[in-house]
Specification:
The protein is an alpha+beta fold. It is built from four helices and 16 strands. It has helices at 9-35, 38-48, 55-73, 107-113; strands spanning 130-135, 138-140, 146-153, 159-163, 166-168, 170-174, 177-182, 191-199, 209-214, 222-227, 235-239, 245-248, 253-254, 258-263, 267-272, 278-282. The protein has a five-stranded mixed sheet, with no helix packed on it.
């Protein structure tokens, strides 16, 4: 053939094998699609005909079915398949350079890594008594004892007034008012005092209010000099904040509220005419001033009283 002239022996064999396989494939396809179609059509025509089959035809069909049964019996009986689940040996994996040793977790390590739970905070119960006002709300230190009145609601005869945690003798006036006497110890020094109303067993209590104890007013003068001799030291020299000098004697009032009660070489005692609080002014050495000159404690400032006349002795030699 002209197709095989220029081909080698191997190529010729391949072409011949391809042609033979193509012919076989065509024959198989023709037998599948056209060879088996005659039998069903023939059976359909047989089923549609109403003519009863002849005895010869029936016997031939029986023999053909028996032959088919014998052919089916000749098939191989199915057998169970035995599957071996053993895995083939696999070589050990190589070492991973990114892997690192992790120590086993113990109970102590687990407890250390777990965060410590925060303690539960129980909110305090609301006050069962109502404290609305404290009268007086402030007091001066060193004023002694005074009467304290509290007002509110839901007070009972068992309720007591507490100042800085100490119970005071309390008088029950009504469900809205209580009174007590605050001792002088609570006003000895300035500061804030906490006032609360509650029963002795603590079952009933109120909210807290503040009683402010402030420092009392103090004289703003300075004791700088004394007039007269040691025996007659009845006039003191005071200096105010502006630098003015003032002569005072016992019974004089300075600053509008401080009365002089005692004068000595070391100090002057004054008393507050409104609060009845005693104040003491210590003697301060007067410093020399360029404008006023030098002053000592026996020097007399302006408006000083005239000197006393000398006392002459009598004929008996007595003064």
């Amino acid at each position: 053939m002209a197709v095989l002239e220029d081909k080698t022996l191997a190529e010729r064999n391949k072409l011949i094998a391809a042609a033979v396989l193509g012919v076989i494939a065509l024959f198989v396809l023709w037998s599948v699609f056209f060879g088996s179609s005659s039998t069903p059509q023939k059976s359909r025509r047989t089923a549609r005909s109403n003519t009863p089959p002849s005895p010869d035809r029936t016997s031939s069909e029986v023999s053909r079915k028996s032959s088919l049964v014998e052919a089916d019996n000749s098939l191989t009986v199915p057998q169970p398949i035995e599957y071996d689940s053993t895995l083939p040996p696999v070589p050990e994996a190589r070492r991973n350079i990114f892997a690192y040793y992790t120590p086993p977790t113990t109970q102590a390590t687990a407890n250390a890594t777990q965060p410590t739970p925060l303690p539960s905070v129980t909110p305090p119960p609301p006050p069962s008594l109502i404290l609305a006002a404290v009268s007086p709300s402030s007091a001066y230190a060193q004023t002694g004892e005074f009467a304290l009145e509290v007002s509110g609601d839901k007070f009972t005869p068992e309720a007591r007034i507490f100042v800085d945690g100490q119970e005071l003798p309390t008088r029950f006036t009504s469900v809205q008012k209580l009174t007590a006497t605050v001792p002088a110890a609570f006003t000895a020094s300035p500061g804030a005092r906490q006032v609360v109303v509650r029963t002795s067993d603590g079952q009933l209590f109120s909210n807290t209010m503040t009683l402010n104890v402030t420092a009392p007013p103090a004289p703003s003068h300075t004791y700088v000099g004394l007039l007269g001799s040691t025996r007659y030291s009845d006039t003191a020299v005071l200096k105010d904040q502006s630098g003015e000098l003032l002569n005072v004697q016992r019974g004089d009032i300075i600053g509008g509220r401080f009365r002089v009660t005692s004068i000595s070489e070391r100090a002057i005692d004054l008393i507050d005419t409104q609060l009845r609080i005693k104040h003491t002014l210590r003697f301060v050495e007067a410093r020399p001033s360029p404008s006023a000159g030098t002053m000592n404690r026996n020097s007399a400032p302006r408006n000083s009283p005239p000197p006393r006349p000398p006392v002459l002795p009598d004929d008996d030699g007595k003064p």
